[in-house]
Amino acid sequence: MNNITKVLIAILLFSIQFTQAQNSVTGTVTDSKGDVLPTATVQIKGTNLGSITNFNGQYTLNFEKNDITIVFSYLGMITQEIKYTGQTVLNVQLKDEETTLNEVVVIGYGAVKKRDVTGSVSSIKDTLIKVNKTANLSDALQGRIAGVNITTGSGEPGAAVNYNIRGSNSVFGSGSPLFVIDGVQIDIEPNEVASAGVGNVANQDPLATINPMDIKSIEVLKDASATAIYGSRGANGVIIITTKGGEKGKLKFNYTGSIGFSEATNTINVLSADDYLIYRERRDPGNSFTNLQDGTPRDFTDIPNANWQDEVLRTGMVQNHFITASGGSESTTYSASAGLVHQEGIVIENDYRKYNLRTNITHKQSDKLTFGFNANTAFTEAEGVANSGGGGDEFNGVVQFMVIANPWELQDITDDEQASQEFLSPLSLIDEGDKLLRFTRTFGSLYGQYKITNHLTFRSQIGAGFTGSKMQEFHSSKSRFGQRWNGRAVIRQTETNSYNFTNTLRYARTFKQKHFVNVLFGVEQYRYQRESFFLDITNFDLQELGFNDISIGQTFKDYGSNRGISKRMSYFSRLNYTLKGKYLFTFNFRADGSDRFGENNRFGYFPGGAFAWRLHRENFLKPVEQINDLKLRVSYGQTGNERIPPFTYLATVDNTFYSSNDNIDLGVSPGSLGNPDLQWETTTQFDIGFDLTMFKDRLNVTFDYYHKLTEDMLLDVPVPAQSGFNSQFANIGSVVNKGIELSISSVNIQKPNFTWSTDFNISRNVNEVTDLGNVDFIPTIIPSGWITNPGQVRVGEPIGIMYGYVFDGIHQEGNELGAEPGTMKYKDLNGDGVIDDENDRTIIGDSNPEHIGGINNTFTYKNFSFSFLFQWSYGNDVFNAGRLRTNGFQPFMNVTQDYYNEAWTAENASNIAPALGKIEPVSSSYFVEDASFLRLKTVNLSYNLPRKLFSKSQISSLQIFLNANNLLTFTDYTGFDPEVSSNNPLLRGFERFSYPRARTIIMGINLNF
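^ that's the sequence the OP posted. Answer follows.
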């Protein structure tokens, strides 16, 4: 073979091999939303040949054979196999697996997949929220989130709610978390809702304006690595609420409507009318109620009487109506909703109405530019006089008097007697009083987002909020509240406005197919303003017009106005770094500058960091097929608190009137003592936990242990009298919170026609005050009652303790100290033979539960669904100050049947309750009760009608449902309900006859068309 032939054969063989290697395909791999997927695997089935997409989601695959199948896969997405048929370009869109690991979790200024979360974040989706079919957000959340204790002050419609995440951080600063609703940051301030302060301090809930049916998801950020991005505003945790947006497709409507009925879950068993007469005569023989002025017994034969709880309480009707429209095109999606709630309170003449409107619009101008707008406005209106609580210059309201008022209506008495407590009818408070509370909240945001490059995105958003509240209250001269004033009208109006302007720059990129970096930089401005005024007018000669014409009133009892402004400037950043998809790092930093501190301490700096290790991706766990995901988490960080009055670091002056030459001249005088060295209260938190998913997503377990230390607490502390002031704000003291949280979700049975799933959570928090500066305790004062000092904040003890004497039974005989038989006896703790405040008072109760939790079970059978939720609180106490009244502190007060039966007499040597008229208004363990409870919170039964019934109509689905809330409560507490939350954050477990909680049963439909 000559050389030319050899060369030709070699060229031919090379050409054949080259031709065989020429098969090549390129393309881009994206997710279900069209976003590129870096590091996706592209492999020839049955071989080790393949490629990985670059940071633009692009790949190139070279191969020899034509008869192949290409496999596209990505963690958390459904693997897709495509037969090669000669394509040169093959673009693939992968769909998410139906697993909780792929759920999107909203975090501060962004969102991530659940599998990539490094901090402690709890998430609730709309599928759980809408099961309640309730108009109140708190009802939808109670008992469902570990570490979040939600309590309502009373059962009054729209009543204030206390949200507490992982315990109380501060003695003075507000313990409420930050709420972020569609990017708008909202600090819930109770004083946004106007209150007249006449016989009633029960606040309305500002969050009642949010309709739960609008909510898409709720995320609760609990540890410092998650909340540090919000700096000073995240000290008490962050609750992020995302409302529903539109989806691409034709216009769709949803209507949910229901009607139901509410009634009191409990009443208090007091003496009947006949027993009351016996009681009064036994307690006070010859008294002026059971006897006439000449001493002869009064004839009650023809005098009407009543059980006032039966007269005041009613079955109230509840109506909820909610409609949503949504849809969109390739470039624009939209959603709009409207809601109406009308709830009759279980106290007569007490009505609550709420109206909601919401819009959400997103427009994609191009592949780079996106705009969005959302707005939410709600108006609430509540009617009903003095239904709960106590405060102002009077105490007793309708709820209190329907329990303790004597059951007889005397006719032969004067007007003054009729308005006195001795003869007062609870109905007279309603008939002779009028109260109207209106509250409006409007908030929204507008944003623009521009994709500068494939990796760099700029976003600018402005959010704003406005509230307006007006309280009008009138009490005539025939009522207890208005009698001594000859009629009294109070009008108070409050308005707030706020905005936060946020600009962020985000950079996300994958390097060398194993390093993923996501960096966020941001700057934010915030401003909040509150204005209010009030008028308190008395002496109305004409009272028919009430508060509708206060010019008739002749005397200004009080009046005033105020205005406050607060500003904040913030800079923040976050770095997320993922290595090989199994080592996840997060670093946060935020600097907050506030005008509540002086120049030297104006800025606070709050770092945070977290590490998560996805163990199931390690080789040693890959053979364990039962584990779908196992992630260990550890985090550490700091947050701050500035929730004190604005400009507290400055000394202030007050208006003062001076007398000069028989004239009254206006001047100023020192009002408060400033502290230029005041600085940020800081909370440092450590958290360690794990997330476990097993058995193809049928079992999910989350566990956390945390330790929080709050230092440099902002306290209004006493100062020496020679300063001319009583107190001054200073950074003193520290508080520790530590606890555990456990959440378990399981699919117990999964059959084609039947499923059973369970959601369980339990949490325990231990709170301890470790330092209060130069004092050992701070008294807890609750005004406007006979027992006003029921607690203390003490070093070494939790916030929320009750402090007083230890009740030790009843004196059976008199003693040398003057104690009479039948009077209350207290323990002599130091054994000196004398009972005194300094030596014989101690801790007698604790408002904090040992643990709280909830368990929900859901069953589905074909088109039926049934679920029920149990909620509990264990180990918490309540100081039931109402017992002072139902145990006959004053003669006119009716008493409970239990007290009457157990009261000491010479014949009944009781050691349980004092003799008639011998109850003492002293803080003691006699008034402390175990308020542990187990509540059947929600029961829901629904049925989806078969599609064939309306296949020829525009209806796509129709569901009918029956729902019950607060169905059963198991407790030993003797008040109306064990779930109480006073207005004082230092002693939540204190009550004076809170508005009874309602049991509600509703039925309705859910219609899609």
